[in-house]
Amino acid sequence: MTAADLPAMLAIPEAVHPLYPEDPDIFEERLALHPAGCLVLEGSAGAAAGYIVSHPWIYGEPPKLNSLLGALPALPTTYYIHDIALLPEARGAGAARPVIDYLSDQARRMELPNLSLVAVNRSAAIWERLGFQAVSDPRLAAKLRSYDADAVFMLRKIEYWTPTAAR
Question: What is the pTM for the complete model shown?
Answer without folding.
Answer: 0.89
